[in-house]
């Protein structure tokens, strides 16, 4: 059925892992989706970062832009945007019980060699300050070449646990 | 605290990554140790993260700590009514608790 999610790759982290890479994006689907469930770090206050991969290798050039709305339970909502940085990022996560990251990314144009790779993101997490945060927005990798996957890291720490899944949206 | 250069952060990051070895990558559920290139990138990521925290960490901390706009307006109202400095004091506390590095 059109619109169904077809699982392409999945990895479950159960011991300290510095990076997780999901690949397998090609011309089969127009739109892909990545799900991160209950991602926990071993380093308090560490920042989750993520990048596109080109032929299986993370692209580290300063061509990542993003603009997001921070939805906060403790105070006024805020806006965040950066351009020409070397990765996309999320809010810090911590090591206390319940401080986890959950995220959905939709990936567009990833298989195109002539267009930029775009994503939309939705995040629901407990941050390192113990407060619930949500985040909605979009991001673009401003390089007109095909991307075949995504890499996820924790800057300065490890992913302690979590499930990472890549789906294709059936045409 | 003295402001550090990216080179100083790279030196720190190199030491930290060396002591954290081995680091592992999980690629489509296959677990393996980092390649040399991935170790180099981990050092660069950590150094850039430290630089960002030095240059911008206080801004993020202040954003976290400022009272909501509604609370600030309430403080300003009561300051006008009572001729007090509650709002100015609250903002000054956030700034002094999260100083700009120099």
The stretches of 5 or more residues of chain B where confidence is low (pLDDT under 50) are: none
Order of helices and strands of chain B: HEEHHH
Average residue pLDDT of chain A: 92
Q: Describe the sheet with the most strands of chain A.
A: 8 strands, antiparallel
- Which percent bin holds the helix content of chain A? under 10%
Distance between the amino and carboxyl termini of chain A: 8 Å
Known CATH architecture of chain A: Sandwich
Number of domains of chain A: 1
Listing every helix as H and every strand as E from the N terminus to the C terminus, the arrangement of chain A reads: EEEEEEEEEEEEE
TL;DR?
The complex is a heterodimer of chains A (171) and B (102). With 171 residues, chain A is mainly β. In chain A, 0% of the residues lie in helices and 58% in strands.
Describe what you observe in this structure.
The complex is a heterodimer of chains A (171) and B (102). By secondary structure, chain A is mainly beta. Chain A has strands at 5-13, 19-23, 31-41, 47-54, 57-58, 64-72, 78-85, 88-89, 101-108, 117-126, 132-141, 149-155, 159-169. Chain A contains no helices and 13 strands. In chain A, a hairpin with a 5-residue loop joins strand 10 and strand 11. The model of chain A has no long low-confidence stretch (mean pLDDT 92). Chain B is mostly helical and 102 residues long. The N and C termini of chain B lie close together (7 Å). The interface between A and B is medium-sized, with 29 and 27 residues.
Key traits:
heterodimer; A: 171 residues; mainly beta; Jelly Rolls; five-stranded antiparallel β-sheet; B: 102 residues; mainly alpha; two-stranded antiparallel sheet; 70% helix; 8% strand; elongated
Topology:
The complex is a heterodimer of chains A (171) and B (102).
Chain A: E1 5-13, E2 19-23, E3 31-41, E4 47-54, E5 57-58, E6 64-72, E7 78-85, E8 88-89, E9 101-108, E10 117-126, E11 132-141, E12 149-155, E13 159-169
Antiparallel strand pairs in A: 1-13, 2-12, 3-9, 3-13, 4-5, 4-8, 4-12, 6-7, 6-11, 9-10, 10-11
Chain B: H1 6-20, E1 24-27, E2 30-33, H2 36-65, H3 69-82, H4 86-97
Antiparallel strand pairs in B: 1-2
């Amino acid at each position: 059925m059109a619109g169904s999610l077809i699982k392409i790759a999945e990895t479950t982290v159960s011991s300290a892992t510095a990076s997780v890479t999901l690949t397998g994006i090609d011309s089969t689907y127009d739109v892909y989706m990545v799900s991160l469930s209950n991602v926990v770090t071993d380093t308090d206050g560490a920042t989750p970062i993520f990048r596109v991969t080109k032929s299986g290798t993370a692209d580290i050039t300063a061509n990542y832009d993003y603009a997001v709305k921070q939805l906060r339970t403790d105070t006024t909502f805020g806006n965040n945007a950066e351009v020409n940085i070397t990765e996309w990022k999320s809010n810090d996560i911590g090591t206390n019980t319940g401080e986890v990251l959950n995220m959905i990314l939709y990936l567009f144009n990833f298989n195109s060699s002539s267009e930029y790779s775009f994503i939309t993101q939705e995040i629901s997490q407990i941050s390192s300050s113990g407060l619930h945060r949500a985040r909605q927005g979009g991001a673009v990798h401003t390089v007109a070449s095909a991307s075949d996957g995504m890499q996820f890291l924790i800057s300065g720490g490890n992913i302690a646990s979590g499930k990472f899944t890549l789906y294709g949206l059936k045409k | 605290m003295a402001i550090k250069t990216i080179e100083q952060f790279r030196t720190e990051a190199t030491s930290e990554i060396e002591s954290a070895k081995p680091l592992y990558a999980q690629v489509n559920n296959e677990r393996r140790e980092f390649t040399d290139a991935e170790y180099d990138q981990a050092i660069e990521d950590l150094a850039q993260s430290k630089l960002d925290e030095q240059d911008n960490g206080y801004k993020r901390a202040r954003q976290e700590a400022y009272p909501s706009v509604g609370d600030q307006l309430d403080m300003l109202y009561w300051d006008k009514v009572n001729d007090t400095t509650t709002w100015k004091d609250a903002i000054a506390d956030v700034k002094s608790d999260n100083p700009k590095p120099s």
